[in-house]
Every structure is written in C-alpha cells, then in structure tokens.
Amino acid sequence: MGWSRAAILGVIGLVAALMFPMPKAAGPSYDFHDESCPTLRQMVHDSVEEALKEDIGIAAGLLRIMFHDCFPQGCDASLLVHGRYWSETSWPQNKGIRPTAMALIDTIRAKVQNPDACGPTVSCTDIMNLATREAVMHFNVPGYAVPLGLKDSLAPADLARIWELPGPDLSAAELLQRFATRGFDVADVVVLSGAHTIGRSSCSGFQDRFQESTSFARRLRANCSSDANRLQDLDVTTPDKFDNEYYHNLLAGKGVLTSDLQLLRNHTTRWWVNNFAQDQGWFFAQFGTSMSKMAHLPSSEAAQYGEIRNYSCFWSNQRWLTASA
Ligand SMILES: *[C@@H]1O[C@H](CO)[C@@H](O)[C@H](O)[C@H]1NC(C)=O
Ligand SMILES: *[C@@H]1O[C@H](CO)[C@@H](O)[C@H](O)[C@H]1NC(C)=O
Ligand SMILES: *[C@@H]1O[C@H](CO)[C@@H](O)[C@H](O)[C@H]1NC(C)=O
After folding, report:
1. pTM greater than 0.85 (yes/no)
2. Which cofactor does it need (predicted)?
3. Residue 120 in contact with ligand 3 by CB distance below 6 A
4. Most C-beta atoms within 10 A of its C-beta, which of 60, 153, 210, 312?
C-alpha cells in the first residue's frame, strides 16, 4: 500500500504534536529542518541502513548511546564530546559504549553538514536521535516523534548527573525511583529494558549472579570463566532480532542482569512483563511512546548555551578551533 515514509512520519509528527504540544517559536519542533535540510531523514536512513548491513550491533549501540546521553541532563550529545579533563565515556557507567556507533553519528554529521548538502544546520543531538529511530525502525518497529532543532552541549554533563544513570545491579524499587526522577513511569521502565532484546553485556555487568545455583546462572558463569572478555547476549534466544523474546526469557528464568530479574519481583513491573510477553504489538507501541519521551527530555543547559557542533561531534567548536590553531 502506497503510504510513503514521509507521509507516515508526517502523521507521527501530527499525533506527537497533539501529545506533546510545543511552542511555535524558534525552539525545537518536529518540522524544524523541513526547509533548511529537506533530505535529512533520507540521508540518516541510508547511512544507518548501510551501517547495520555491516554490523547489526550498531542498533544496540545507538540505543545505549541515546539513553546514556539523554538520561543525565537531557539530550545534548554531551556523551560524545571531549571535555577538558575527561569525557563521559571515561566513567564506569558508560563502559562498553560502542565507538563504532559513536563514529557513525559523526560520519552522518559530516555528510549532512557538507556544503553541497545542508551546511552546518543540524546538530549532533538531532542526528543521534534520528539515527536511533532509524535503527529501531529497521526492525519494523513503528516510528515515533522526535523533536528537532536541539543544541549540542559545550562540555560533558556534570559528574553527579552521570552517576544517576541506573546501573545493572539496582533493585526494582531503586530502578523505578531512579527513572521516576526523569518522569518515566513503570511502563517506561519495563519497555525500555526491552531494548535488551538486542543488547550485550560484558561479564562484569552480572558477576553478582555467579554465586547463584540455578543451572542458568551456572552456565553464565561457565561461559564467562572460559572467556572473560565475552559479550553475553541479553536475549539468549533471538539476540539479533528486535522482538518480545526478552520477556519470554525473563519469565522462563533466563534473565541475565540483576536489573532484568528485578522486573519480576514487583507485581506492577511483572504485570507489564506479562503483557509485553503476550502481545508484541503492545511492546512495540509502548516502546515508541517511551523512546519519544526520552527524546523529549530537554537539556536546559544546551538550550541556553549550546551550539551546533560543526567540525566534529567529539569537539566543541571553540576547542576544535583552538586545538587546530
Ligand atoms: C554459553 O556458551 C555456549 C557456547 O558458545 C552457548 O551455546 C550458550 O548459549 C551460552 N550460554 C548462555 C547462557 O548464553
Ligand atoms: C512495586 O512498584 C510500585 C510502583 O513503584 C509500588 O507502588 C509498589 O509498592 C511496589 N510493590 C512491591 C511489592 O514492591
Ligand atoms: C562553526 O561555528 C562557529 C560558531 O560556534 C563559527 O564561528 C564557525 O565559523 C563555524 N564554522 C563553520 C565551518 O561553519
């Protein structure tokens, strides 16, 4: 049937505009780049598809980048930028952020900002959010609304904010409480954990489980002791497919991270796990809603002082110019 991609995204934008009304001033909007960069979505789409053909793991990489960027202080690509003394990726919370997925964001920036394309009109933040949506849509998950016209931060986020990222060893109550500080409810927490359907973790992310005596935990430990650098699939049945198998696995006692298992310990989170296990369509629809919520986490800092990084997503313009002077 002949719905073009642009028309579908247009409808999504319209629905989103009703759900999240935004002032029609110079601030962010869903159609921010429609006139200044009409080919933006196509360029992002083509680059992401090409990258996923080489390495499907880029999709999980982008999802993790967006979450780890947006959670601490709103979406502002602060995760990518080199600070004067350190970068956000220097801290243990951001261990395992994929360099290839970060590089893809800057590769797309260079294409988009080429003078023959759109020039320096689109931020690294917008590209990160659009590229992540393309990666999700690659798996036939419906699209969702992403506000555009966001600015890039001048520096990494405050350390205190980075330490607020939820770790893999939190209890259900701690997990829910941590997400609630950013306006996420129980459904958001359970559905965003569903991104683990294509996720991987290093062994250090679940070593707290190695004393357990279940056969599944013993196998996890055995696999890690034979290869300490192993990247463990978080969805042990269909690791490269974005589907609701992650929830089936949880219910079958095959959850990998402590934070995954915790979703079964609280009856409200467990209720959502059951729903998403029974109904993949519900999982997909809620996933889009929660991703859109994440894209809407505003960075007041970048909105006020931010810029469009126009030399590299890894350097603020000022620092790039002084470093290369
Ligand atoms: C452990 O490794 C084996 C061999 O690679 C694999 O078949 C099995 O699925 C792994 N177990 C888990 C829990 O990932
Ligand atoms: C589960 O989480 C909900 C929502 O945070 C909370 O109200 C409830 O008390 C928790 N239940 C248990 C058994 O921990
Ligand atoms: C990049 O932006 C800075 C302002 O942040 C500006 O001075 C510079 O001319 C821009 N460079 C390009 C190539 O657009």
Report:
1. yes
2. Ca(2+); heme b
3. yes
4. 153
